[in-house]
Amino acid sequence: MTDQLVPRVQLNDGFSIPQLGFGVFKVDPGETERIVSDALEVGYRHLDTARIYGNEEGVGRAIAASGIPREELFITTKLWNDDQGTESVRTAFEASRERLGLEYVDLYLIHWPTPARDRYVETWKAFEQLQQTDGLRSIGVSNFLSHHLERLIAETEIVPAVDQIELHPYHQQPATASFAEEHGIAIEAWGPLGQGKYPLFDLPEVTSAAAAHDVTPAQVVIRWHLQRGHILFPKSNSRERMAENFDVLGFELSEDEVAAITGLEREGRVSAHPDEFN
Ligand code: NAD
Questions:
Q1: All domains of the chain, ordered by start, with CATH?
Q2: For residue range 29-48, what is the model confidence (pLDDT) as tens digits?
Q3: Is residue 23 lining ligand 1, measured as CB closer than 6 Å?
């Protein structure tokens, strides 16, 4: 399969993003170049990293070594919490861009709202300035709940292109997702497989669909995300699983199968609460 078949999601700023990509949270910096090179060979063209993952250089080396034309790639990185603030955003962004070795970054996100710092509004205003430069295309946020988005929209000019939130069948964040949809903010699902912390692949709603379509439970969960309209970038260090997770465009879940998985919601958060993580 090639990336040409991966659907693209239209963003509110005129750019578009491949709906399925590859994430590198907890990918060891020493192994990142090899793992990302594998992902690019498998066919992924959308990569999701962050300063705090410590592996931007490895991502950049794999991109440079691949020879893939820059315009075929979509690269996201994120501003870490202690770099929030008017003065620090530009320096932090330039450092990330240099570590990635890129002339421009496709998407830059505020990683967490960290409300106790109360700096996400001024940070977002600095993002708006940064977007005027040649080094950056789209700007967005991560782990913002609807009340954080509401404040941002009220106090600043630009509506975020995306909100990257924890989202899997046990934790679908319907309030934030529907607020985002109403305001033209695309939803990116992080931890789309529940980070392996829940037995999602053993649930009958998932295994019965897997049997019906002759695919794996992981492929069913990824397909559920795609049909729900989420952008996602499941992570795996294994090339076999990278290929498995990318091979999800040759079948379609029925409406009932999608609804059964959507019915699994139970507020099963695996991460910190965005109001409490600072
Ligand atoms: P994930 O839900 O993608 O789960 C990864 C786990 O699932 C790994 O342990 C892997 O071994 C396992 N797995 C992957 N494919 C499998 C398969 N086919 N069969 C069985 N097991 C499989 O979790 P994640 O990596 O945390 O999330 C994906 C990406 O989201 C990250 O890499 C990162 O880019 C992003 N992320 C963002 C934030 C944020 O705060 N913005 C937080 C966490 C992750």
A1: 3-262 (3.20.20.100)
A2: 999 999 999 999 999 999 99
A3: yes
